[in-house]
Specification:
The structure holds 2 protein chains of 2 kinds. Chain A is of the alpha+beta class. Chain A contains 4 helices and 4 strands. Chain A folds into 2 domains: 1-31; 34-133. The chains are: A alpha+beta, B alpha+beta.
């Protein structure tokens, strides 16, 4: 009987010790390194919108009613990044005037939205860039 | 006999715990190091791509007595004169430039490439194959053309 109690006691101690180790390891395996993924994506999204605005691609898309040039630009960005750009009339955001999505991108889980207003032919518009990291399937 | 079993189990648990804590501690230290490196790389990329520096005509000064170095005429639009001046200072002032950009503890490079990957400008020290490098990619305009700006920071 005494031996049985000791065996049970040591088994419980071992199980508790392993449970503690597994939970500590699990807690620390949620890498802090990934915390900067969102600010990195935010910076790149602002870059893309700023570049498209400053080289007049946004204004041209509205003027010529086409999204081909914007699509081309988005397709040239880094492979792990996905973008969808929508342009709206400043006073009417019910439907997008133009939409362009990067080739080969399916909607991810965590989507970041960046907005920028711009001026074209004496009218205000705004562009919304949705961005996310590519999900490998 | 009871004592021997109890002490053996206790020692076993102690050895496993100490080994595991040692490994976790090393992993945490390494993660902290690379997290800080990534944070600094991101900050340096922001300063280079989005600001003109302080003073904003630092490229005209004969020495590098400046508060910050930026390569932009305006946000995301790079000034070729500033880039060329920084590249000129690479051999003589690389260490000072690292310090000004907050990268004193590390080595770094940046390169500006076409969207197809052809290098247009490059600066700094490039890592060997063994160096773990933090790479940050940004998008800019240089002389009216879309370019990719890549900064790499390593130990």
């Amino acid at each position: 009987m005494k031996g049985f109690v000791i065996s049970i006691d040591s088994m419980i101690a071992l199980i508790i010790a392993f449970a503690m180790l597994v939970s500590i390891t699990g807690y620390f395996s949620n890498s802090k390194f990934d915390l900067l993924n969102e600010p990195k994506l935010a910076f790149v999204s602002q870059d893309v919108l700023t570049v498209l605005e400053k080289n007049n691609k946004l204004a041209e898309a509205v003027k010529e009613n086409q999204n081909k040039e914007i699509g081309k630009c988005l397709n040239k960005t880094s492979n792990n990044l996905c973008f969808e750009l929508n342009i709206f009339d400043y006073d009417d955001d019910s439907s997008a005037l133009s939409t362009a999505t990067k080739k080969g991108c399916k909607k991810g889980n965590s989507i970041l939205s960046t907005k920028r207003s711009f001026f074209s032919e004496e009218k205000f518009y705004w562009a919304e860039l949705k961005s996310w990291y590519k999900v490998e399937t | 006999m009871d004592l021997i079993v109890a002490v053996t189990v206790l020692l076993f648990i102690l050895v496993i715990s100490m080994t595991s804590f040692g490994l976790i501690q090393n992993a945490l230290n390494e993660e902290e190091f690379y997290f800080e490196m990534q944070e600094r790389a991101l900050n340096a990329s922001q300063v280079l791509v989005c600001t003109s520096g302080d003073p904003n005509t630092w490229e005209l000064l004969s020495d590098l007595n400046v508060n910050s170095i930026g390569l932009a005429k305006e946000r995301n639009v790079l000034d070729e004169t500033k880039i060329d001046r920084l590249i000129d200072l690479n051999s003589s002032n690389y260490k000072d430039i690292k310090e000004i950009l907050g990268l004193a503890k590390y080595n770094f490079y940046f390169k500006i490439t076409t969207m197809n990957g052809q290098t247009v400008k490059e600066f700094g020290t490039f890592p060997g194959s063994q160096n773990k490098t933090i790479v940050i990619e940004r998008y800019v305009l240089l002389n009216g053309e879309e370019r990719e700006f890549t900064i790499g920071v390593f130990e």
